[in-house]
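User: Batch of two.

Assistant: Item 1 of 2:
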Amino acid sequence: MKNFVNLFISIVIAGWVLAIALISVQNATPVSLRFLVFQSIQVPFGLVLAFCVAVGLVGVAILQPLWGLGESKSRVDEEAEFFIDDEDF
């Protein structure tokens, strides 16, 4: 199961890289980001997209231990230990 998850993550990242490359080639127009009264310098759209994806990947990698997503707790194992009868053996 862990191999499937690693494969799925690799496919998703490869898809993002392909999408960024395709959009960068087709749309080389500089854009500027605005938030409230702040405005960034003009940078190519592909660079903005790549930066956002990178920040998202790093952010999830940092927050994953805090959320406990990396831990594999199985309730099936706990229930199996609960229902063991010594009389049946």
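Item 2 of 2:
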Amino acid sequence: MIRVCALSELDDRKPFAASVDDVDVVLVRDGERVHALADLCSHAAVSLSEGEVSRKGIECWLHGSCFDLQTGKPSSPPASEPVDVYAVDLRDGDVYVDVTVTTN
């Protein structure tokens, strides 16, 4: 697990781009929970951190594919492949991510 940022640096339901061991990830805070996904749309290979977060998940800004924050699975076309979801640990007000452990 690598420390990425303080929990207080994350705005609720706003994407936050980070690099963990040379892997681009997008963090999304949902209350006291934080999700970490690969920061690359599986359809168009663009950054998901530039998109918006809705009730359905994180939406790709280019074509509108939406990915579930917990599973990485697309809930709307045109994407048909999931994105990786990484293990997150919150410790002492900090966010840690392990890009070697995917949860999907």
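The chain has one domain: 2-102.
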